[in-house]
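Thread title: Can someone regenerate the structure for this chain?

I was given the following input by a collaborator and told the matching C-alpha cells would be attached. They weren't. Posting the sequence so someone can regenerate them.
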Amino acid sequence: MEIVYYPDPALRRRADAVALPREGLAELAQAMLLAMKEAEGVGLAAPQVAEGLRLFVASGTGEIEHALVCVNPVVQPFGPVVEFEEGCLSLPGVRAVITRPEGVRMSWEDLSGARHEGEFHALMARILQHEYDHLEGVLFFDRMTPADRLRVRPDLDAFEAQYRPR
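Best answer:
Regenerated them for you:
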C-alpha cells in the first residue's frame, strides 16, 4: 500500500461515510496499519492511501497492537489549546508547531459496526484531530501560522514540482 503525497487531490476531498458491514474494509484497515508502522507514523487516514472513506487508524505508540481503527468518527475537541510539533506521512520531512485543543471526545464505529465513545488527551487527542482533519480534506499546514507557512513554502513547492498524477 502506498501513501499518497501532497498535492495529490485525494488529500483535499472530504471522505465519504462508510456503510457497515463493507467487504474489504478489514483488509484495507490492516494494510493501513502496516503502512503506518512501516512509515514510522502514529496515524494514517484512508484519504492518505487514496481511499475516500471515513476511516483512520491511530496509535499513540506507533505500534499496531495499540492502534484504534476508527470508522465514521466524530471528533469534538475541548480544553485549552496547546502547541506541539506535528508532521504528516503525506508531507515527509515537513514539520511545524500546530495549536490544537488538548482533548477530544470521539465516537466511532469499529469494523463490525459496533459504536464506541471515548475521551482522549495529549498526544492521542492530537493524533485523532490530525487524522480527522484528513477526512475533511484539511492538511496540517492549513493550521500553521502565517510565518510557518512561509517557512515551509519551499518544501511545498518541491512536492508540487515532483508530483505526478496517479
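The first strand starts at residue 43 and ends at 45.
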